[in-house]
User: Fold this.
Amino acid sequence: AQKITQTQPGMFVQEKEAVTLDCTYDTSDQSYGLFWYKQPSSGEMIFLIYQGSYDEQNATEGRYSLNFQKARKSANLVISASQLGDSAMYFCAMREGKRTSGSRLTFGEGTQLTVNP
Amino acid sequence: NAGVTQTPKFRVLKTGQSMTLLCAQDMNHEYMYWYRQDPGMGLRLIHYSVGEGTTAKGEVPDGYNVSRLKKQNFLLGLESAAPSQTSVYFCASSLLPDFRDEKYQETQYFGPGTRLLVL
Assistant:
């Protein structure tokens, strides 16, 4: 079974509008971490936002927020006020197990976001 | 402060040839990782290291070997390259966990990637 599922291969949004990228995860661990990374066409991996499983508040980083619904096992990324530079591939990832064993990440297949002017 | 660097940026190999990819980080990170990314897919963990002199297998370790002789370097070796190893390879590093600040400690910082083509 997929540990990280991103059901939207592609998404389109108008500039200045908000967009939600979906991510569901599967784990039996009590302690885990959830991440979103951005990969522009240039190829580098850029860290956006992190949510720990014990965090009660949704994480926010500037225009990025993570809608964490633990019971549903979902960790959706919300981008507010989209910009043309937000056009990229977005990956959801999860760390399971003890952090002292290395923060090994499992990635989803990604969502290609296109921001239209 | 260069962060995470990878050498080379691009390489073409013939089937059966060997090569070593070098990853270097100057952030004094304890943990290092090698991932591969195939077209249209997310990254998959090949091998990782939780400290100098240690290595462990990830999700897709077959056909690869690694070494961490120095804390700042993590080498990925292909002994006999196969076309199935055509991919983009990413190295990453992260800090030793400190439970005072999960986000800061958990975040993995990635190198720019190495594009490998095996003919």
